[in-house]
Fold:
Amino acid sequence: MKTAIIGLKTERVKRVFAKHFIISAKKPDFVVSYGGDGTLLHAERICPGIPKLPLRHYSKCGICAVKRKTSVHEATPGIYCDSALPQIIKLLRSGKFAVKEILKIKATAFAKRGGKTKRFTLTGMNEVQIRNSSHAHAIRFEFCLNGACIEKEIIGDGVVAATTHGSTAYFYAITRKKFVKGFGIAFNNTIREQKPFFLNGKFRAEVRIHRRHASLIADNDPRAIPLKEGDRVVIEPAKEKARIIKL
Structure:
């Protein structure tokens, strides 16, 4: 089997894995994400759909801070501790693991560029966001869901559309609510209170910018799609899914 290892300070982990697997970034069978949540998002972005093994150094593990533990355990929620590397590798080699599929979310911007409307798409494992480009100005936007106009004008800092995996991140920071199925859409720092939406199955949300400039972003992707008055963004479930190895 082939594996790619993504993260910082991976030399030791690579040496251990190289004794049992072929280390290769070309069509790996699985990817080791060595770091925290941000590393996992980065790994999914550059190797989408390939099973990921989230792993981090034992110094970040609350259990190992008290006493080193060599059986398989999580250093932080959803991320395994590398103090159990021999046992982890044994499970991987014997096929004694499961692969959990995680829904992802997609946002497509239809933005005017040089007199023409161009299409830009970003996909998130945690969330996609439309946010004000300037901290000094709120944006005004229209929000529609499944063909119905919910609000003709919302004034605020933007919109966050999250997956279950991202429900504990920005979505929770805004709503103080979590969810375990489907998707959630929250409105960030709005003048009037806007309750979040919790959606199961297929949906199609549309945001149209009425005033000021905004940006479309996804997860910790450094790319940001500029949006201006008249531009619109369609948000919907992505066809592709993330896959996480569970030991």
About this structure: The chain has two domains: 2-96, 104-240.
